[in-house]
Amino acid sequence: MKKRIGVLFCALLAMVALTLSFALPASAADDTFVIGVYYYDADGNSIKTNQYLGELPEYFGGSLTHAQQVIDDIHTHAPLFNAARTEIRLFADVPTALTIPANTTTTLNLNGFTLSAADGTAPLTVAEGGALTITDTSENKTGKIAYTGSAAVSAIENHGRLTIETANVSTASSTAALISNSGETARIAVKGGNFDTNGAGNFANGAGARIAVSGGIFTEEVLGEYCAAGYKPQTLAEGNRYSATPSAYDDRFGETLTVVGQAAVTEGGTQYYPIDVVCGIDALNYTAVGIEYRVIRTGASPLDTTDKSEVRTVYTTLHLTIDGRQSTCKPADLGASYLYTARLLFDTAAYTEENTVIRITPYAIGTDGTEYRGRTIELDGDVCADNGTTLFAKGE
């Protein structure tokens, strides 16, 4: 029996090798390839060997015909090679549409080349469950994503998670927004690049989808609702060019603020998720301090509300319960002289990690009535998960 199992195991390995070798390039220097996928380890080194396949090529390449296939293979190859990061790199202009499939997280390096389409399909699509960062490592950052047809098609259609660090994105369509963002979990972060519309707007944003612009240059105005937390629309000096710029804020509130999700509580027969917000302030010469909070609820019953919680007491020490443990917070922890706190309550029947976004801005009222505002922060389930915590504590 042992011998049969050994033979079967060897046969399975041979099948894996045969399956993967189908996508391997004959030579890394083969100039017929227009696209390559690189696999990197946790230290940023290109993975060149695999315990089952032995020596690997520098990249897995594809001709124009097979460009989509090497992208589709990422989901299978990355765990097999124990890759921490992958990169799709263009070696030539690619005049055909590409899709980042579900369950795939990768980077698209335009490398100075152009990804384009002219028919009824967007040049680039990120499927729901896919995650993509777009960049360009070429010296002059000339890489482009362009829709060149006349149909009502965007240059980029996002249904997953998209971050644009640098790219030149354009459309010839006068009836479709430059970038389409749809699906309740669709997220776009624009940090840089050039965005050339044709009169139909920068974004088409569906219900529940979110966009956060903190950089880049646009030919149409960036709406305030699409600016990242702490940013506002900006008209550039050269005219007819727009972006987003950090909002002015006052540093009298210290360097940061602390937000702690507490165990659910019941008040008046309703169960709530409490969130305690701790802010700093530099002095006592204010008539009031507090927070302004904007709560955006997505999903079937969307809601967007803005309110204030004002307090008149400050502290030199606060005792907090964090993850069930007592913790002491001092002004120096926030780079301030005093502390104040406000509690927000969220109905557990209406708000979840997935459908809630909270923007918090500390403020203070001077003795002459002047309102001073601090830096705005944005919280949601994704931000909290990235920091190893949750937006709403579940226990009671």
What does this structure look like?
There is one protein chain. The protein is 10% helix and 41% strand. By secondary structure, the chain is mainly β. It folds into two domains: 21-246, no CATH class; 251-386, Immunoglobulin-like, CATH 2.60.40. The protein has an eight-stranded mixed sheet. It has a five-stranded parallel sheet with strand order 6-9-12-15-18. The protein has a five-stranded parallel sheet with strand order 8-11-14-17-20, with no helix packed on it.
Overall tally of domains: 2
Principal-axes geometry comes out as globular
Kindly estimate the percentage of residues that lie in beta strands according to DSSP: 35-45%
Overall radius of gyration? 25 Å
Strand order of the largest sheet: 4-1-5-7-10-13-16-19
Helix content: under 10%
The profile of the biggest β sheet is:
8 strands, mixed
Termini separation: 55 Å
Uncertain segments are: 1-30
